User: Fold this.
Amino acid sequence: MAKSRRRRVAERARHLCEYCKLPQAYTSLPHEMDHVRAQKHHGRTSLRNLCWACAAYNAAKGPNVAGYDPHTDELAPLFNPRKDRWDEHFAWDGPRLTGKSPTARATIDVLRINDPQRIAHRSHLIALGLFPPSEQTP
Assistant:
């Protein structure tokens, strides 16, 4: 993918993962461009279909566009950073990301955002006063 497109996607997200808001500077694996709608499902490689994501979340998401809300067991669309407002769907409870909506809960589950290692990492960053970022939404 063109470096200029990658740079534009990262800058638009202020170098924060668009799912968990973790700054690129505080992770060892580089963030990646995620196709909101996977190429497998005819998603374009365009700014309107790309978001900035932690590498682990991009890998866990794969081509999924939906997941099951663990609270209702109903199928829900995954969070779309290009269309959905982060603060309407998510909230922090210490280092744990919580979902305010079926979409958020399904996204947290499918992407494994509250994996124990990720929670431990965020706990450490919180203790250092580095997380969460003061401005939640791009």
